[in-house]
């Protein structure tokens, strides 16, 4: 990369704009009613490739981000520049556990279930794993480039239940009913590794730049973590509270300020539990989950924030009308000029 790229991506004004947006976002997390709805539309360079060319990708990604610095200085919409090295997509952790993760013709990643019995999972030697070595290498290379205006997104570390379902399919849920101790053992082994991976990133990446997966649409104030709750829709409230909730709470508690759960299905059966967990500070919904955003807004705590991805039926106008702009972030690339009409003072205050 040439010197101009570095200069653009560490420009003090670029960093100052990000800090302004972080201050606005802190207000959302504090329950304040903003003058205008908070809109997030990060500028991201993402790859799921896994291999020795990761640093080459990083330099190309930074050069491409440098071309969008003027957009990133937008003071109305938060458009943080982000790099997100996400090897093997949602199956990164499965690969660390020794599962056969492979690429389909459409370039998406898939996994074959483990053949070992539930209850016998062992912590992997990740230091001997080339994918983890590459992930650490990209992180160190990013830090060496000293591009202070760019956010750094983690691989998909997911959650204990998500990974267990990737490794065993429905077998892990059946085991909760028929072999509960075996299920607990493997969920514990998975969660311990996930927490340690988050701790590694917390220890190595500056808090002001560290974000979890999909930072362009899920960026939180510094100090917050994230987990993937997709598979919680498969569980009853009783099973979730007994087997999974303590692990999810433990994972988000690794971060000094708690964090976010990603939801994409039907999960409202768990809102009483999530309301009680102090580490649960944000709920990111897309697809089917966004249809229930009013339920989440009504039933969760006043210090719990919603990141609501609009859909055909969940319009931006509906989100603003229901929330009054409070406790909500809208991750969307809205038409130019919309933000000016996003005045929350005339919206219904729920």
Can you walk through the features of this model?
Strands 1-12-11-10-9-8 form a six-stranded parallel beta sheet, with helices on both faces. Strands 2-3-6-7 form a four-stranded parallel beta sheet. A two-stranded antiparallel sheet has the order 4-5. The model is unreliable at about 345-350 (pLDDT under 50). Strand 11, helix 14 (about 315-325) and strand 12 form a beta-alpha-beta unit. The protein has 14 helices and twelve strands. It has about 350 residues and is of the alpha/beta class. Helix 1 (about 5-10) crosses helix 3 (about 55-65). The longest helix has 25 residues, at about 180-205. The protein has helices at about 5-10, 10-30, 55-65, 70, 90-95, 130-145, 160-170, 170-180, 180-205, 215-220, 235-250, 270-275, 295-300, 315-325, and strands at about 40, 45, 80-85, 100-105, 110, 150-155, 210, 225-230, 260-265, 280-285, 305-310, 330.
Shape label: globular
The proportion of strand residues reads 5-15%
Radius of gyration: 20 Å
Number of strands: 12
Poorly predicted spans: 345-350
Order of helices and strands: HHEEHHEHEEHEHHHEHEHEHEHEHE
Distance between the termini: 50 Å
Helix/strand-derived category reads alpha/beta
Q: Mind describing the biggest β-sheet?
A: 6 strands, parallel
